[in-house]
Recover the amino acids of this structure.
């Protein structure tokens, strides 16, 4: 027997049906905002990630040499691919470019709860607008997605931060500070002890007192943001704080302000973010890691050889999202559903097939016997697929030009004239033939 | 600048929208028959293919050693994976098992028209029924899929053959014949010269006279099938011919007989087929290769260590299917569609956002300004995304508690009371406010 590879998953129909419902709801929300679906390859030149992704991602890359001697990698994230696609057609694409896609990605990580080597993400991005409305639209579509899935403000929160506030504060300390390294320390701060966190900041070039001050500054409330401007006294911090405030004001207009909390300690792991960043958390804390995140990355397209093009996006992943939905009790039922089973008794296939066909044309899910089985075996099968109604096409009934409808929930049965079934009924049930 | 890898494709929104419409129609047809979606990994133990797939597929495998020293391969086809999944849960799955999925596969082939290194397939399979109705249901769902996509009997044909008729005839010649090798020769026969075809049959163990006889036998019409039984005089051929006739009779009951032509010269390339096989062809011949194919493979599950489990399925691929749909003029328009663009003039974002939100709740695709742009720039953008209706939210209109609706096709405009827009209208248009 062959084994599935560690960290990869098989999805059988009942679970897949629940997943499909969730993916559909996510995509329908995103489409409502005018994001357009794109299709992207599973493989890219490995150099793309070596040059552009953080070290952590490169360490986890599934990369190899293909039969043509190319050094290729399975895509560990979508952003470098969409950046490549934007650059390739930059002139002809009208701005803002609003794209999404749902697909698998691959990272060689240690599998654990909510983390797999093959995982699915819906990537949602806006290219070509630096306006705070674009950041807020990303927050809005992310929040709508979650509320459409059945969550409310008690269930989740967006911890909103700003890379340029972090960078600007670090800058204000003067001296030779490795900004990205310090920001990565901030990203880890919630998961490690304060002393270790301060050590990491010191490794990045702060001294211990500066590390403590920095830590305190990041704890400010929303109405104390001016203290940061005062502390640093730079245009950069002033602009970054104003930008953050404008994004939150736009989120207010978009009706999703209630889901957003200021949290400068939130930094996001990836190096390419430049402005507002956010992470979605389970408000109850039961799902302990970030459910997903996103933010602004204005320099990436240019670094790919394109015209300077501001960008902002987010990307919910399947594994953590399902943990949150399960925790909140809104994960869809993992149960098959079937509208009709057309049961054949004796040599009635032509009539049964005609009825199945007519019901399918009405948009229903309809199964019929393809195994030449007994009445009892067919009934058991109809039960196993949760058929709502069984249409029994029997030789004797047909002599009277009738079929029998059986409601599987109540067990009630009625006869219906075969020539009038399903007839003009959108969804024929036993009530309509009583 | 980074290049896309050869044989891989990027799909931009307009093309992707057409592809999505086609995938949705395919999946909706398949779901109507009660096939259930499954989700499957992109990677398997490479040994699975080395043991189970034909030589050709193994030569084209994207395989490599992962960071844990596993010899893995990107899935070049789905059948081995679903076989593994059936075996893993054989006891608990109720039969027949009817599964489908749409996803990419990877083969290192030379790219050409209708062939890519990354391609998409919808795999549709029934496990657990050896009844001719199951084969016919596969033919029926395949035909319905194509007619639902807008094709008719003038556009396509299913060339139906039977592996056991081919095998049984070869057997009847006696001697030491390599059956799979001879069947692979039949599979190639349409693409090569007769002399070369006969040479291949001779390589497989026939003599030249037998090769000619075999060739003639395969050319029989449907009403001459008894001649094959007579020629061979074996139970095996008798049963195979009867099985084929029963499948065609069931296809008649299922309403798809008109799409099926007997064509014993059709063999399918893969080794694992055992019974009825078929290939879909463009009736005009403009698309010269098979569009897709399928058939019965009763021995595969057992060869994976499972209980003997009959199986039959088919798998349309995106590239050839789109060639056929384009040839027939039924490929969907590659054009974006947008229901509403909510245009902001002046500081009207709160009202514009409220209107956009209400329209989205009605299930519409709605964009609004996220770039702080001028009236003209917003109008151009609304035009570029084919917005049907533009809702102009202007400061002056709002002073009169009004918004302006503009029908983009006619250019007509009306005013609507802001408090009543969109109101209870399912799909508010300018007519409703005139």
């Amino acid at each position: 027997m062959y084994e599935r590879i560690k960290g990869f998953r098989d999805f059988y129909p009942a679970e897949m049906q629940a997943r499909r419902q969730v993916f559909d709801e996510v995509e329908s929300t995103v489409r409502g905002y005018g994001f357009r679906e794109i299709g992207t390859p599973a493989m890219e030149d490995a150099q793309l990630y070596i040059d552009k992704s953080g070290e952590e991602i490169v360490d986890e890359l599934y990369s190899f040499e293909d039969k043509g001697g190319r050094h290729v990698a399975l895509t560990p994230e979508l952003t470098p691919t969409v950046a490549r696609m934007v650059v390739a057609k930059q002139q002809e694409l009208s701005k803002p470019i609003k794209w999404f896609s749902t697909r698998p990605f691959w990272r060689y990580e240690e599998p654990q709860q909510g983390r797999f080597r093959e995982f699915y993400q819906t990537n949602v991005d806006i290219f070509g607008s630096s306006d705070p409305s674009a950041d807020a639209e990303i927050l809005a579509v992310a929040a709508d997605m979650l509320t459409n899935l059945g969550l409310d403000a008690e269930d989740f929160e967006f911890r909103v931060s700003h890379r340029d506030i972090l960078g600007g504060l670090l800058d204000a300390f003067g001296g030779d500070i490795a900004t990205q390294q310090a920001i990565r320390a901030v990203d880890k701060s919630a998961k490690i002890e304060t002393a270790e966190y301060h050590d990491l900041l010191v490794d990045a070039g702060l001294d211990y007192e500066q590390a403590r001050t920095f830590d305190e500054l990041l704890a400010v409330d929303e109405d104390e943001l001016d203290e940061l401007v005062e502390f640093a006294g730079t245009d950069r911090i002033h602009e970054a704080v104003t930008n953050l405030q404008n994004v939150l004001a736009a989120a207010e207009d978009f009706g999703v302000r209630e889901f957003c909390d200021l949290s400068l300690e939130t930094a996001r792991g990836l190096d390419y973010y430049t402005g507002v960043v956010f992470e979605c958390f389970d408000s109850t804390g039961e799902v302990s890691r970030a459910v997903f995140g996103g933010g602004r990355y204005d320099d990436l397209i240019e670094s790919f050889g394109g015209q300077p093009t501001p960008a902002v996006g987010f990307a919910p992943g399947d594994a953590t999202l399902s943990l949150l939905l399960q925790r909140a009790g809104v994960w869809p039922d993992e149960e098959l559903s079937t509208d009709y089973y057309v049961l054949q008794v004796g040599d009635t296939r032509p009539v049964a097939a005609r009825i199945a066909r007519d019901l399918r044309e009405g948009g229903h899910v309809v199964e019929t016997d393809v195994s030449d089985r007994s009445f009892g075996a067919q009934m058991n099968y109809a039960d196993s697929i949760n058929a709502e109604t069984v249409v029994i096409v029997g030789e004797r009934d047909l002599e009277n030009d009738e079929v029998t409808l059986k409601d599987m929930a109540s067990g009630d049965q009625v006869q219906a004239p075969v020539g009038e079934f399903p007839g003009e009924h959108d969804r024929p049930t036993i009530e309509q033939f009583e």
In short: Chain B touches chain A through 93 residues (CB under 8 Å).
